[in-house]
What we know:
- This protein is mainly beta.
- The chain has helices at residues 82-85, 107-115, and strands at residues 2-3, 13-22, 28-31, 38-42, 51-54, 61-64, 69-76, 96-98.
Amino acid sequence: MYRVWRKPLSAYVDYLWVAEGYVQPHAREFVLPSGSLTLVIDLDVERVDAILICGARSQPLVLGTSKPLRLMAAVFKPGGGFPFAECPAGELQNLQVPLVAFWPSETAELREHLLE
């Protein structure tokens, strides 16, 4: 986990996390509910719809851990996700929406920069 301290990103993002080669002896793992909007990027999937905006959750998120995971995420501060999702946060509760729905032309470029 990496706390974001530098502006302008620190005004929106609380912290970043990376899971590279994350593997477990069990086939799935539960991530506890969170009140935060999160941007999650699956670096192993080459489609732009593998970058998701995940709304606040009232139920656990289930990760498949039967194969190594390579993910990164930005967890937004309260209200910090609005410039990125451009809709009321309540509309995203318990949903995972591809970022391409909000940023149709920029999502592929973002993914390429992250892979570099």
